[in-house]
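Why do we bother with holo predictions? Because pocket geometry can differ from the apo form. Keep that in mind while you read this record for pyridoxal-5'-phosphate.
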Amino acid sequence: MQPFIPFSRPTVSDVEIEELVDSLKSGWITTGPKVSEFEKHILEYTGAEFAAATFSCTAALQLACKALALGPGDEVIMPTYTFTASAQVVANCGATPVFVDVEPSSSFLMDLDEVEAKITPATKAVMPVHYAGNPVDMDRLYAITKPRGIKVIEDAAHAIGSSYKGKMIGSHGSDAICFSFYATKNLSTAEGGMLLSNDADLAKKVKQLSMYGISDSREIWNSRYSKAGSWFYDVEFIGEKANMTDLSAALGIHQLARLDESNATRARYAKIYMDGINVPGVEFLSVRPDSECCWHLFPLLLPEGVDRDDVISQLKERNIGTSVLFRPLHLHTAYRNLLNTKEGDFPRSEALFHRLINLPISPSISDNDVNYIVENVNDLLCPK
Ligand SMILES: Cc1ncc(COP(=O)(O)O)c(C=O)c1O
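The structure, written out:
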């Protein structure tokens, strides 16, 4: 009997556990030297210039909005096909999320023609979302935003290790790029996030805002609690509490060292799915030839007319866990209330959503598990 295959499970190796114990014994367990080390490694890995580690991707996005002074009257264009965090941070600043539909292909990425059409004098930023790690066409996006002075905040929650035109996501020159290291992500620190930027002042401000806006906040472990330290501090801005701990960074340092290997396993599993699922009418994620996807997720679009929720139940009966990421934001109550959206507003996103299941792709499962899933998807959708 096949044991239950969970949709996602983190992989934690002994070296992470040893590093965590080292942090616990070091006498300093919150933001300190390991966070700085993790930031340095992420910069080396991505090729970005400045980094600010945060408690989550949501916190990084929120602080980016705050550092860019987004507020009432400002609009931020983003796909409806995303997680609530993308729009929540904009709404929390008092600014307005403006949704666009996905492209006609199965890329799950926002339609850049519609982005251009929705620009108004109030548009202050665009937030591309690299769904599943599938990179948005950044050159086309910059051709729209840069001449108009519109900021770009990348929601790169899914995209650490993805690349666009030969360069890592994080290094293309957006005002802010925010990664997630949440428990289910391809690099996990339990909870965690990271803002990257090529703007030194913005990254510095985000670091400071992540700890109350206090002047020396990120150096507290050294400047205040060491023998040479002083008790004095100044609150320079109204900030938030959104810092990463050294305990999370201890995990992140070693997760990052294994990231290429674990992303290669994801890519291999994606290929097994795409080669093996042989059902007329199914579609897979379409990735442009100029990009490499880290396969944080594996979306499978079922043939039109198939009852998606029934397939999910039947896969569960066969011990296969799945998910549906995402239900487009304009369909959720909070955004219907906030933005007056309704069913039918973004038909391409709705069509994707109704056909979508996300299959397990984490390296915590085996080749046998993936082959078992392929066999069962084929058997359910095309019984012999
Ligand atoms: C597209 C997207 N943006 C942002 C986030 C928020 O990430 P975090 O949980 O690290 O705040 C998520 C989380 O899954 C996400 O999927």
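The chain has a mean pLDDT of 95.
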